[in-house]
Amino acid sequence: MNELTVDDLADVRAGDKGDTLILAVLPRDVEAYALLERSLTPEAVARHFAVTDPVVRTELPHLPALVFRVPSILAGGVTGHSGLDGHGKTLGYHLLMLRLERTL
Confidence class of residue 94 from pLDDT cuts 50, 70 and 90? Predict the structure, then answer.
């Protein structure tokens, strides 16, 4: 099997809106965008983060970027959670570790 990770293809920036994590995936080139567009589905992201609420993906091909909205993952968000990462910044790194199968 010919596997790679999101980190091999893109950078990720994370933010939050309440209890919702926002992840911007910024591919390094056109080929990486095409592969991520095929492989990095909302379902794959939901499985990776083990969430049951629907993950929403917004495609921005002219940027290029893929933006994911992952609901109900920040344990109440910045003001509602006493943990160190209420903004979800480390979860951006977690997405970089998601393994993808290289498709031709």
Answer: confident
For residue range 76-91, what is the model confidence (pLDDT) as tens digits?
655 555 454 444 566 8
Its pTM stands at: 0.84
Question: d(Cα 74, Cα 18) in Å, to the nearest integer?
Answer: 8
Distance CA 34, CA 19 (A): 30
What's the Cα-to-Cα distance from 27 to each of 43, 48, 60, 74, 95, rounded to whole Å? 19, 19, 11, 25, 13
Peptide bond into 54 cis (omega under 30): no
- Residue 42 has which token pair? 């909302």
